[in-house]
Design a protein that fits this description.
The complex is a heterodimer of chains A (116) and B (115). With 116 residues, chain A is an all-beta fold. Chain A is built from no helices and twelve strands. In chain A, strands 2, 5, 6, 10, 11 and 12 form a six-stranded mixed beta sheet that branches. In chain A, strand 8 and strand 9 form a beta hairpin. The N and C termini of chain A lie far apart (41 Å). Chain B is an all-beta fold and 115 residues long. Chain B has no helices and eleven strands. In chain B, strands 2, 4, 5, 6, 9, 10 and 11 form a seven-stranded mixed beta sheet that branches. In chain B, a hairpin with a 6-residue loop joins strand 4 and strand 5. The chains are: A mainly beta (116), B mainly beta (115). Chains A and B meet through strand 6, strand 10 and strand 11 of A and strand 4, strand 5, strand 9 and strand 10 of B.
């Protein structure tokens, strides 16, 4: 079984400040990790993913996340946020692509609220 | 199509009514998933298809929930005798060919409100 914990339900931050959204997971098998972003009244959009290789992964809009196997974490960071980053962020874990192991298990989400 | 399409976007049902939610996946994607997202929560897995075969329905909350994908493309999630606790956003996702990265692409969802 797999589980994801996002400890912070809401993170308020001023524009241009740095931010970190925390994600911890547990799994009995090898995992693949994802961050999805959800804007109001929209579906989930993939922000970034860790499948293999470098443990530091980056998105095109300045977010990055680092897979830390020893700490079972996949925290999301951005050095300088923008108002448009206001959204709900979900961390998710998936097992290997074998039959039923391909479903995603999500955390409860973190609401990032960026203000001026 | 260009993305995963879900219809209707919003559905209001009276308690006890049957509803059907449609998902049109990305063309060529063999895998299709349904998730339920309650207010203020993360999505939770309901069921999974590979082509027309339903390989996992362990997340369906009761026998009132039924999903099908008869031709391996469009899928329908049916909820019979809706209850207030069924109110949620129902998300559909599809992913590509076996052996690929298995990235799931989501539709905008159907918001179901049961009165």
């Amino acid at each position: 079984a797999q589980s994801v914990t996002q400890l912070d339900s809401q993170v308020p931050v001023f524009e241009e400040a740095p931010v970190e959204l925390r994600c911890n997971y547990s799994s009995s098998v090898s995992v693949y990790l994802f961050w999805y972003v959800q804007y109001p009244n929209q579906g989930l959009q993939l922000l970034l993913k860790y499948l293999s290789g470098s443990t530091l992964v980056e998105s095109i809009n300045g977010f990055e996340a680092e897979f830390n196997k020893s700490q079972t974490s996949f925290h999301l960071r951005k050095p300088s946020v923008h108002i448009s980053d206001t959204a709900e962020y979900f961390c998710a874990v998936r097992g290997p692509l074998t039959g039923t192991a391909s479903k995603l298990t999500f955390g409860t989400g973190t609401r990032l609220q960026v203000t001026l | 199509g260009a993305g995963v399409s879900q219809s209707p976007r919003y559905k209001v049902a009276k308690r006890g009514q049957d509803v059907a939610l449609r998902c049109d996946p990305i063309s060529g994607h063999v895998s299709l998933f349904w998730y339920q997202q309650a207010l203020g929560q993360g999505p939770e897995f309901l069921t999974y298809f590979q082509n027309e075969a339903q390989l996992d329905k362990s997340g369906l909350p009761s026998d009132r929930f039924f999903a099908e994908r008869p031709e391996g493309s469009v899928s329908t999630l049916k909820i019979q005798r809706t209850q207030q606790e069924d109110s949620a956003v129902y998300l559909c996702a599809s992913s590509g060919e076996p052996g690929g990265e298995g990235i799931q692409y989501f539709g905008a969802g159907t918001r179901l409100s049961v009165l």
